[in-house]
From TrEMBL:
Protein name (record): RNA polymerase II-associated protein 3
Metal-binding found in the keyword field: no
Pfam family of the protein (one): TPR_11
Family matches, as SMART domains: TPR (SM00028)
């Protein structure tokens, strides 16, 4: 299994060097599923998500790699610094200049003479100072009293496919066209690799796949993930689907959502995998469960 994972990673490296980032991503995700505690693969995934401008995904895999390597950071300095550097640039791309600056400083603690890090630190410091000096003019948030929580309270704040998906028409109960009997695109018995790549599908297909992941037989998930536990990339996509349905009051999927979350929580390694899930999505789902489902999200997650 380790050899197979390394072969997939090497194939991903070849595709990455050719600029085929989507194809490389699929290889790295498959490799990560076979070797979930491999910090090098996490670094590869972070680099690929940076190229694809998926900043939150890049940060998540940087954090995962950092947590794996942290106990041995002094003996694996190069990889540890690389993960911190990639995280810093993802944070900067999200506009989180101060956080990016702090992350670069952590990398410099390990490699204080690294010229690239020193140049980035200087650049981030100047941008951070500029932002702080102009924050009062840049940010102006009106405060008002409301009688109930507005729908905008539940707006997703992460870089997600949800941002580009229009809300469903509240006057219709048919959210999706019928899913075609297409075993290639909508397999009845999906593989781990197929599920892990759903997040990389075009935005135009996201709605159909949101419904698809809710309608897959739970026993299929149990069989697929019974040994390794649910895959992080798939879990992230599943959270997007949950958010979409609840935000848009498609509550006919409520039982599917809660049943599948309970199933995933019962599988091996979920307590570890869930810690790397997008924290903003988890927080948003907790709010949605409370205010729209009148349920505790933690009872299905923790």
């Amino acid at each position: 299994m380790i050899k197979q994972s390394e072969n997939l990673r090497e194939e991903g490296n070849t595709l990455f060097r050719k600029g085929s980032f989507e194809a490389a991503l699929n290889k790295y995700l498959a490799a990560a599923q076979l070797s979930q505690d491999n910090s090098v693969i996490c670094s590869n995934l972070a680099a690929t998500y940076l190229k694809l401008q998926k900043w939150d995904d890049a940060i998540r895999y940087c954090d995962r790699g950092i947590s794996i390597i942290y106990p041995e950071r002094n003996t694996q300095k190069a990889l540890y610094v690389k993960l911190l550097w990639r995280k810093a640039h993802a944070l900067k791309s999200k506009g989180l200049i101060h956080d990016a600056r702090i992350t670069i400083e952590k990398a410099l603690d390990i490699d204080p003479t690294n010229r690239t890090l020193l140049l980035d630190k200087q650049k981030f410091e100047s941008e951070d100072v500029f932002f702080e000096e102009n924050a009062a003019e840049i940010i102006s948030i009106p405060i008002q009293e409301v009688d109930e929580i507005p729908n905008s309270f539940f707006t997703l704040t992460t870089d997600s496919k949800l941002d580009s998906i229009p809300p469903s028409d509240s006057n219709t109960t048919k959210v999706f066209p019928n899913i075609p009997a297409d075993e290639t695109n909508y397999p009845i018995h999906p593989s781990v690799q197929f599920l892990s790549t759903l997040g990389a599908k075009p935005n135009s297909m996201s709605l159909s796949y949101y419904k698809y992941v809710m309608l897959v037989d739970p026993n299929e998930y149990r069989n697929i993930y019974s040994r390794s536990g649910v895959d992080l990339a798939f879990l992230d996509f599943f959270l997007d689907a949950c958010i979409y349905f609840i935000e848009n009051n498609q509550l006919e999927y409520e039982s599917n959502i809660t049943e599948l979350l309970s199933l995933f929580r019962s599988l091996p390694r979920f307590s570890l995998t869930s810690t790397f899930a997008d924290s903003k999505k988890v927080k948003l789902l907790s709010q949605l469960f409370t205010f729209k489902l009148q349920k505790s999200f933690n009872s299905f997650w923790v």
